[in-house]
Every structure is written in structure tokens, then in C-alpha cells.
Design brief:
The structure is a single chain. By secondary structure, the protein is α/β, with parallel strands linked by helices. The protein is built from 8 helices and 5 strands; from the N terminus they run βαβααβααβααβα. A 5-stranded parallel beta sheet has the order 2-3-1-4-5, with helices on both faces. The longest helix has 25 residues. It is globular, with a radius of gyration of 16 Å. The termini are close together. The structure holds adenosine-5'-triphosphate and magnesium ion.
Length: about 210
């Protein structure tokens, strides 16, 4: 089973994916936790380029192709082999992030994105996508609170400096995607406490695992 977590910066994806992984492991499931951009070493190297605040000159097409380059490697080297072994793979962001950020928010053609997704993913299918939905201001506040705890080198804040309007467009993009693909997506209210949200997510996922 391949499950992805999506949502704006600071909505709680990393927090929740870790809690879910722990809980599923406790239940005896074989779980692999991974993230995008990233995963295997080549994809993590591409991540460094993408999150580097110094790369202000990066043009949107370059950014988009780097995300998909990292994703192609991630899929073949890590995701598919683990799914083949019968493991549950949990992924912190995946292809919908490209559509929400580069498509809905940066304005790249959704048609081109759909073409590129098909080219890279082929017949690969995501089983479940959880969108952690949160007002932009709250997400950015949470992300800012987290950033203050990190050293400068550890901050990955190229996006966190973007305008509020950009994040609003990302949020709307995710909600539009969820509306279009109701079978795969579940939108959850990320304003809940960490524990309440975790319980909700756990119940959604365990219901699908049992099917
Ligand atoms: N339900 C919650 N209520 C309040 N604070 C939360 C909640 N979930 C997470 N946080 C806090 O908000 C901050 C952001 O959470 P987290 O890093 O999990 O978000 P994220 O969606 O992974 O962000 P990013 O997209 O930037 O990776 C963290 O400091 C975390 O402890
Ligand atoms: Mg995160």
C-alpha cells in the first residue's frame, strides 16, 4: 500500500507521518517512511539543490524537472521495490505537491504537468492521499515556530519566504485535486491537536488496510 501525505508548509505532515509509521509498526506492519523531494541518495542530492535558499535564480521549468527527476529515481530505487516486498510505504509529499505548487500556485500548465506525471509514473498508482488542510497563516506560524528551533544550515526555507497568496494558491490546489479524485484523496482538518489528528488519520488508514 502506498500512502502519501500532502498539504501546505507547517500543516503537520512530517509530525503525522511519523506518528502513523510508529503506530503501524506497533501493530506489526512492515512500514517504510520516505519523503519528497528525497528518498534514496541521488534524490536527496537533488533535494539539496531544491531547498537551497541561495538558488533564487532557478526558473520554474528547471525546478519542475528536478522534482520529477528526483521522483523517477525515488520510485524505481525505493518505492516500487519496497511495495513489491509487501511493505506499506508512507511518503511525505509526492506528485500532487508538484501539481499544487508548480501548477496551481506557480501557474505552470496543468496539462503539461499531467503529461509529465504520466511520463514519469507510467501505470504507477497511489492508494491513498491524505491532505492535511490548514489555513495558511496557521501553517506558516507553525513552520516559523519550528524554524526558530533549528540552526540556519538546517532551515529549508526557500518556500517559507514566499508570499501568503502563493500558499493560498497551494492550499486551493490541493483542495481542487481532492475534489477531482475523491476515491484516492481524504481531506483532514489539520487544525486539530496532534493526537486527535493522529487518531483520525490512523482510523482512515486502518480502514483501508483492512479492505
Ligand atoms: N496538530 C498540531 N498542532 C499544533 N502544532 C503542530 C501540530 N502538528 C504539528 N505541529 C507543529 O508545527 C510545526 C510544523 O509541523 P511539521 O514539521 O510536521 O509540518 P510539515 O507539514 O511537515 O511542514 P513542511 O511542509 O514545512 O515540511 C512543528 O513545529 C510541529 O511540532
Ligand atoms: Mg515536513
Amino acid at each position: 500500500m502506498f500512502i502519501t501525505f500532502e498539504g501546505i508548509e507547517g500543516c503537520g505532515k512530517t509530525t503525522q507521518i511519523k506518528l502513523l509509521a510508529e503506530r503501524l509498526k506497533q501493530q506489526g506492519y512492515d512500514v517504510v517512511l520516505t519523503r519528497e523531494p528525497g528518498g534514496p541518495p541521488i534524490s536527496e542530492k537533488i533535494r539539496h539543490i531544491l531547498v537551497d535558499a541561495a538558488n533564487k535564480e532557478m526558473v520554474p521549468t528547471c525546478e519542475l524537472l528536478l522534482y520529477f527527476a528526483a521522483r523517477a529515481q525515488h520510485l524505481e530505487e525505493l518505492i516500487k521495490p519496497n511495495l513489491k516486498k509487501g511493505r506499506i510505504v508512507l511518503c511525505d509529499r509526492f506528485v500532487d505537491a508538484s501539481v499544487a505548487y508548480q501548477g496551481y500556485a506557480r501557474g505552470l500548465s496543468l496539462k503539461d504537468l499531467a503529461w509529465l506525471s504520466r511520463y514519469v509514473l507510467r501505470d504507477f498508482k497511489i492508494d491513498l492521499t491524505l491532505v492535511l488542510d490548514l489555513p495558511v497563516k496557521e501553517g506558516l506560524q507553525r513552520a516559523r515556530g519550528r524554524a526558530q528551533k533549528l540552526t540556519k544550515a538546517k532551515r529549508e526555507d526557500r518556500f517559507e519566504n514566499e508570499k501568503i497568496a502563493f500558499h493560498e494558491a497551494v492550499r486551493k490546489g490541493y483542495l481542487a485535486l481532492a475534489k477531482k479524485n475523491q476515491r484516492r484523496f481524504v481531506v483532514v482538518d489539520a487544525a486539530l491537536s496532534k493526537d486527535a489528528l493522529h487518531d483520525k488519520i490512523y482510523h482512515i488508514v486502518s480502514a483501508q488496510i483492512c479492505v
